Structures are given as C-alpha cells and as structure tokens.
Amino acid sequence: MSAEPLGPRKVVGTPVARPHRTAAVQTYVPEIARGLGIVMSHFFTNTKEMVFGQRPDPSTESVEAGINTVSYPEQKRPYPARFRGMHRLTHREDDSPRCVACLCCSTACPAQCIHIEAGEYPEGDPRRGYERFPKRFVIDELRCIFCGYCVEACPCDAIRMDTGIHAAPYDSREQFIFEKDLLMSFTGRDGSTLTQNPRHEPADTTYPGVTREKGH
Amino acid sequence: MSIIEVVLMLVKIVAVILAMIMPLAIMLTWADRRVGAMAQDRVGPNRAVIWLPTRVAQGAAVGPALGVAALVAFLAFGYLAGAGEPPTAEARATGACVFSHLAIFMTWATFAIISGLVVNRGARSSFDLWIKGFPPRQIVYIGFGAHALAIVLASAFSGTEQGLVLRDWGYGGGAAVLIFSILFGAGYAAFAIRNEPRVGLRLLGLPHAFVADGLKTLWKEDFIPPNADRFLHSLAPFISFFPALTVFAVIPFGDTLCFGADARGHLDITRLAHMVPREGMCTAGALRLQIVDLNVGILYFLALAGTGIVGAALAGWASDNKYSLLGGLRAASQMVSYEVTMGLTLIGAVMVYGTLRLDEMVRWQGENTWGIFVQPLAFVLFFASAVAESKRIPFDLPEGESEIVAGYFTEYAGMKFAMFFFSEYIAVVSSSALLAVIFLGGWNLPFLYRDGFHVAIGGAAIWDQPLSHGFVIVLGLLAFMLKVVGLCWLQLMIRWTLPRFRYDQLMRLGWRKLLPASLVNVLATGLVLMLVQSSEGALATSLRTLCDVLAAVVGVSMIGAFVWLVVFLLKPTRKRTMLASSSAQFAAQMGGTHTARMEA
C-alpha cells in the first residue's frame, strides 16, 4: 500500500483544448443561419421528392444523401423472412391440425400462455395410443413474449410463427385469446396452411410408430 | 365622402380580412405543420380527406377548365362574334406574346405532369403508353426550347411583313392551343379517374387545417373553470384576437389606384387610368390600397401590439390556475420587454424616412432604396423582437409546455383556445407585413416605377418597358404578398430550427443585448444622417448610384433564385437499389412499399 500524496492529484494524459468562445459562437448568429440552411435544404428536398413522386422506396432503395423515412402506417416495410409473427397451427392434408397434443410447447413456454386440452382418438383408430389431438388449443397473445420456444419445442412442426402478422392492437383482453379455429385459419407467408415438412401417417412406411407395431 | 367611397372602404376591410389575413393565417397553421413534416420527412397532416363521388370529381376537373377556356376564347375571339371591337395592332402584339407563351407553358406543363404520373403509377391507356416514351424532364427541356424559339422568332421578325403574319399566328394559334391544352388536361384527369369508385380530395392536407381542425373547435365544449372569473376569462381571447386583426388597418398593401373623377369630383370606379406619369400622385379619384392612412401609422401599430399583452395577462389571471398565472406573467413581462426594443428600432427607420405614415415610408423606399439596406441592424433587431412578440418558438416561454402545461391558455378549450392560437398566427402575418412595409420596400420591385420598368444605373438607361397602370398595381400587390409570405415562411423555419430559450436568457437577450443595440442603431443612424445631409452634391450622386446598384443586386438575386429553383427541380434524384435483406426482397416481390397509397 503506497501512501497517497497530499494535495490535488496529478492529472495524467494530454489536455483537451476547450472550445474557443469566439464572437461568432457567442452571438450564435452564424449557427442560426447554418441551422436554418440545414432545415431548409431538408424541406426543399423532401417536398420536391414528395410532389414529384421521387421519394425512394424505403425498403428497397436509398438516396445517396439524405434520410429515408418509412411513413408508417401509410407505408409499411415488409417483415424479414424469419420474423416471428402471430402463431398458426399447421394443417394435415385432411385439414385437421398436425398437433398431437404432446404439451411440449406449453411446457417450453416461459410465459405460460399456451393452454391445451388433449383428446383421445376413438377406439379402433390406428392413432389411438400413439398420439392425441387438441380438443382446445388456446394462446393468450397478450401474454406471449414472441420468443419462439414453442416453435423450437414442437416435434411435429405443428405450431409456427411465420404468418407475418404482427401483434395487433385490440380494444379488449378477450380479443387477444386466440382459439384453435382462429389459429388454424392463419396461413404462412406463402399462403399455405400446410408446411413443407412431410407428415408421416400410420399407413406410411416412414411412420415412426412402425417399429413398435411390428414388435422390433 | 361619397357613398361610393364608403362602400369602397367596406370592400377594402372585407377584402383584407377575407382575402389576406384569414387565408394567410389558416394557410400558416397548415404550413407550420406541413413544413415541420417536410423538414423531418414525415407524412404530416394528411389524413383528413373529403371523398367525392367520381362524377362530382370529374365535374370539378372539367367545369372550371371549361370556364377558363371559354374566358380565353372570349378574350381572344370575342370580337368575331360581335362582342366588342377588333383588337388594335398593339393589343394584337401583346396578345400574341401572352397567348403563345401561355400556350407553350400550359402544353409542356400538362404533358410533363401526365408523363410524371404515368412513370409513377404505370400506364393505363394507349395514350399513357405513348407518353411514357417522353420522360418528364425531356418534356420540360422541349418546353424551354419552344419558349426560346418563340422569343427568337418574335425578335427576329419584329417590324417586317412576315412579323405581322407571325403575330396573327401567335395570336390566333396561341389562343387555340391554350384552349386545347386546358381542355386536354382536364379531360385527361376526368378520363383517368373514370373507373375509381370515389376520389379523395386531399389537397396536401389542407382539409385537415380547414375542416378537421378548424370546424372541430366550434363543436367542442366551452369549458370555464368553476372558480375562474367568468367575464374576464371570456373577454381575454377577444382582447388578444382583435388587436392582432386591427393592425392591418394601417398596412398599405399596394400603390394608390388612380381612377377618373365624375362631374362632382367623386371617384368614378369605371374609369381606371390607363397610364400614369412616373412622378407625382393622382389628383382626383385616388383609391389608396390601405384601409386608413393614419398620420400616426406606426404608433398605432405599437399601441395595438401593446394591447395584446393585456389579453394574455388577463387570460392567465382569470383562469384560476397557477400554471396559467405563471404563463400570463411570463407573457406580460416578455412582451413588455421586447416592445421597448421594437419601438426603439423603429426610431432609426422613422429618422431616415422622416415620416410615421407607412405608405410614405414605402414611397421613400421606392425613390431611394429598401429599408434593409439603410437600416440592416434595425431589420435584424425588429425581426427578433417581432418573433418574441408573437410568442412563438424560440420565444414561447409563456406557453412552455414542458414547464407550465400550456401557459396562459391552459384553461381554454374550443373556439376560445382557437382564438389565442389564431391570434398568434395573425401576429406572424402582421409582423411580416410590417417588416415588408418598413424594411423590404412594401409593394416596390427593383426598377418598377408607376409607369413601368426603367432599369438604369447612375443615369445610364439599360432597359425600358412601359406598363399600364393596372398591371403595375397588380405586380405591386403580388410583390407585397410574396414578401409577406416569404417572411412568414422564414418565421416558420425559425420555429422548426431553434430550441426554446431559458427565461433568464430571454430577459438578458432583450434588455442587455437587443435594447443597447437598438440604442446604438439610433445613434449611428443620427450620425450618418448628419453626415449625409451636410455633405455636398458628389456624395449625393454616388449614393444615388449606390441605390441603383443595390436595386440591381436585388433584381439579379431574385432572378438567380428563380433559376436556382428551376435547376433544383430538374436535378435528378439518384437512388440506389439494395436487396440485401429478406425484408427488401419481400418488398421488391410486392412491387415495393413505395406504391402504397396514403389512405385515411
């Protein structure tokens, strides 16, 4: 431990020159003129571009000098491909939900906004015992934090966030409770209710349950 | 005073209020928001829209065009149908010049606008496909070439046999092409919207200021706080509003109109003088374009501007609200402080002009040079204190919404609030008008005299163009309006540029900077005046030449500004396409976000 010398501490480093208070700075007049010039140039450029329809497209073009503003909501910039929008439940070929009610998504959900009531297939259905179906599938979009963990967790590619719809403002809380029918009515950004991943039905040779059925 | 003079006086009052102050104040309200939006690249007040049925919109496009076309046809060819006498040779020459250039202008402007529309929204008809081959810029260049060709031909053949033929062609053909281009533009507009279910009247957001915001205030609740002084609370907006309005009584907005006089020596409105001499005043039948010519002109302005303080202070006091009271006190002390500077800066101008009458000040500036050249410091000081008087940014401490809610009009709603709001904008217009009259030569233009243009520097004549009396007056009115609008615009720009002062800075600026500067200005003006008045003829001659040079500088810079504007408008916008992000790829797939229409 070295003893601090008494008195003011010695300053190290190179001193920074204080801004010189010239007459121009003190009167503020040249700066006012400069500021007016900047505002006027923006005004003229923007007005001209608006009147002549020369405004650059905010998401595909840029002007060489100047700003490029999206006048939301009159102009909307499309969301990027991996944008996480509202959820949708994907369909099978027969338009039933792909969801097998495994509760992986609701377990993974950190906001606990997914509620699933699972139903059993009737006796004799080949799927009975292997998978279930969602009697109810409810997402509270007001609680959802759009983290995408449900999509990661789903083993069947049944829940997706690729609708491109952003969270809309509603006027009551009930309107944020999205039921199964609504979730199934959304499509992906390609307009399809399906997914590109093939679904393996019990009759297919690729059906994962096949090994259990044959006793291997 | 004859009946007709009383009627004319009333007409002048109504004209000034309805044609000048009110539109300007409403336009300013709109422009203030619009300018801010444009400077910051926002959409701005553009949402309010009046939907017109397609047939009505088509009628609105075609009807006025038919009217204008009929007027042109009547003016040009009315004599063929027996209305009036055939035009004289002189009138034919003037008509040929006016009609042919107007025809060329209307033609290229119409085609350039259509071409620009087609570029932006795509071709919808075979005509669109044809005009797509001519980019707007190219059409403008062709138009400029046509104007130049017309001028060259007119001067080359002037005074010859072919010149007479050319004149008749320019007269008849020019008028015909003018009629055609007017009807064509309107017809194209009506044709282009024929399939639209309805057409939105948006006018750059003007309905927003006029209809949405203006009428809204009339319907709103007129709230008076329970413990407020009901009488004073209601009186304050009027005290604030009417002085701002009545200032215009002394503003001369044009030179004196000379009419003939009837047998009793009264003004005869049907006989406007054709030409007037360059010097002197008209004797009988003079119509001043000024509501009253008070001999105390400028003192009247200062007195009324001072009355406005009472309105703001009263509003603050009568509202029974601490913030209102603070705002009222701030308004009172600020306006009193800057009133002093305002009065003292005007002393210099009054010393130079030797009069208090505003119209004589303008005449002095017409004979010598504009006030801004003889009183540059006073111009800056007066401008600063005029902005402070109108209580707008950067001097909007009395409102100071980040400190005292809304200052002295916190407790006002509906039309009473709108009156405060309006009086602020009217104060902007009136201070701009006063600045234009005292410092920017009022209705004067460089080298424009009562009988036309006479460009001469130090006695050496360069260009002469006699003009008729009515035309000179109209030019003067336009020049005055241009100056007022320009100064209003400068005030809007200042409002969107500068931040608000702190209150002690405001007071220090007023009392310790502007006030001494105005005193120095009075002293310097006195010394220079003494020097000039005691000097011999040589100095006077060189000063006279200096005045001409300054007028030439103003004229050249006005032409330069116009050329700059044209060059600026024609300069292409260089854009770069970038499709790096997936969002941009989506946008490009959809045809861009650019085409999204602004729907309310």
Topology:
The complex is a heterodimer of chains A (216) and B (600).
Chain A (H helix, E strand, L loop, with lengths): L22 H5 L1 H23 L9 E3 L24 E2 L14 H5 L5 E6 L13 E8 L8 H5 L5 E2 L16 E2 L1 H6 L24 H4 L3
Antiparallel strand pairs in A: 2-5, 3-4, 4-6
Chain B lengths: L2 H37 L10 E4 H24 L11 H33 L4 H6 L4 H21 L4 H32 L5 E4 L4 H14 L10 H17 L7 E8 L5 E6 L13 E4 L7 H22 L3 H32 L4 H10 L3 H4 L1 H14 L24 H26 L8 E2 L2 E6 L2 E7 L2 H29 L5 H32 L2 H34 L4 E3 L4 H8 L11
Antiparallel strand pairs in B: 1-2, 3-4, 3-5, 6-7, 7-8
Helix pairs in contact in B: 1-7, 1-14, 1-15, 2-6, 3-5, 3-6, 7-14, 8-9, 8-14, 9-10, 10-13, 10-16, 13-14, 13-16, 14-15
What this model shows, in words?
The complex is a heterodimer of chains A (216) and B (600). Among the domains of chain A are: 26-78, no CATH class; 88-185, 2-Layer Sandwich (Alpha-Beta Plaits). Chain A has helices at residues 23-27, 29-51, 104-108, 149-153, 180-185, 210-213, and strands spanning 61-63, 88-89, 114-119, 133-140, 159-160, 177-178. Chain A is an alpha+beta fold. Chain A is elongated. The mean pLDDT of chain A is 82. Chain A has six helices and six strands, in the order ααββαββαββαα. Chain B has helices at residues 3-39, 54-77, 89-121, 126-131, 136-156, 161-192, 206-219, 230-246, 297-318, 322-353, 358-367, 371-374, 376-389, 414-439, 469-497, 503-534, 537-570, 582-589; strands at residues 50-53, 198-201, 254-261, 267-272, 286-289, 448-449, 452-457, 460-466, 575-577. The model of chain B is unreliable at 595-600 (pLDDT under 50). In chain B, helix 1 packs across helix 7 (206-219). Chain B has 600 residues and is mostly helical. Chain B is globular and about 75 Å long. Helix content of chain B is 66%, strand content 7%. Chain B has two domains: 50-201, no CATH class; 221-536, no CATH class. The interface between A and B is large, with 41 and 42 residues. Strand 1 (61-63) of chain A pairs antiparallel with strand 9 of chain B, so a sheet runs across the interface.
